[in-house]
Amino acid sequence: MTDQLKRAISAAKTAQANDQQAEATRIASSSAGDQTFDMSESSYKTSHTAIRKARRFAMQGLYEWLVTDRRFDIDGKLGWKANPPHDIAARTRATNAMHTVHIGYYHEMMRDIPEQIEALDALISQHLDRGIDKLDTVEHAILLIGAYELQNRLEIPYKVVLDEAMKLNNHFGATDAHKLINAVLDRMAIELRALEVESDTKANLRTSQKAVSKQSETKPVDTTETAPETNSDSQPTASNKPRISANNASVKRNSASKASANISEFKASKKDANTKSQD
Questions:
Q1: In whole angstroms, what is the distance from residue 151 CA to residue 122 CA?
Q2: Phi and psi (nearest 5°) for 81?
Q3: How much is the pLDDT for 15?
Q4: pLDDT at residue 26, as a whole number
Q5: Mean pLDDT for each 10-residue chunk of the chain (279 residues)?
Q6: How far is residue 86's CA from residue 92's CA, in Å, rounded to a whole number?
Q7: What's residue 9's pLDDT?
């Protein structure tokens, strides 16, 4: 047997042993309920719309988990638990077209939110006027997603978190549920994103102040000029003397000379009349 053949047989045995070990590990992890997800599935969409669809599928998956395993866990019916989150995610991927969904983010929410359920529920309960068990299951699932994103996904602006929660409610929730969801997440944002909320508030204030100043600058100004008061007893000055053109002056001088000639003729004719009457 040549050395090349020996090396090929050895490599085949090593590959077979590695495959058997990997299969054993997969079976053991599956039986233990510990399923890992590939968060960098680059073959799937990662756009804003794909993330929104991931939230929708996660909301539906969390709803299913809350009414099955989570409810049985709270009620102490541990033997009834047979619907873990990773099984729900696997069924969802098998029965839906997920090529336009951000699969990584969907799996992250389906894994992390059930793991952090106690802490997230405590966070939500601080801003509720009722017990969390009194919440509608759809509202509970939406609040869990919003609380998770506010606390763990700091790269997502808090306004986007609130807006996406409203869209989830419009799609799945009751008509007036948006009031509760918006109020709870808004208070939660002030607590968890204090610096971001404060910065946004200051930016809005500056914007409103600029708008007010711009309106004041563009406001029309009354440009009507009032005539200065003149005193009739005061002497005319160079500024308020009426200007007489050369043409007007010559006309006035001609009129005066004609008047003087008429008066002289009248006096002469009257004198002649008196002389004749005396004779």
A1: 13
A2: -70, 110
A3: 62
A4: 46
A5: 62 61 46 42 71 96 94 77 91 93 96 96 94 94 97 95 95 89 95 92 84 74 52 50 47 53 68 64
A6: 10
A7: 63
Assigned token pair, 97: 């077209």
| Whole-number pLDDT of residue 223 | 54
What pLDDT shows up at residue 246? Answer: 44
Phi, psi of 275 (to 5 degrees): -65, -40
d(CA 245, CA 149): 87
CB 120 within 8 Å of CB 113: yes
Distance of alpha carbon 195 from alpha carbon 72, whole angstroms: 39
Nearest-angstrom CA–CA distance, 219 and 213: 10
The pLDDT score that the predictor gives to residue 250 is 44
In degrees, rounded to 5, the angle at the alpha carbon of residue 147 between the alpha carbons of residues 141 and 152 is: 125
pLDDT score of 244:
44
User: DSSP per residue over the chain, as a string?
Assistant: --HHHHHHHHHHHHHHHHHHHHHHHHHHHHHTT-----TT-TTS--SHHHHHHHHHHHHHHHHHHIIIIIHHHHTT-GGG----HHHHHHHHHHHS--TTS-HHHHHHHHHHHHHTHHHHHHHHHTT-SS-GGGS-HHHHHHHHHHHHHHHH-TTS-HHHHHHHHHHHHHHHS-TTHHHHHHHHHHHHHHHHSHHHHHHHHHHHHHHHHHHHHHHHHHSPP--PPPPPP--TTSPP-TTTSPP--HHHHHHHHHHHHHHHHHHHHHHHHHHHHHHHHH-
Please name the residues in contact with 185: beta carbons below 8 A apart, sequence gap of 6 or more: 143, 146, 147, 150, 161, 162, 165
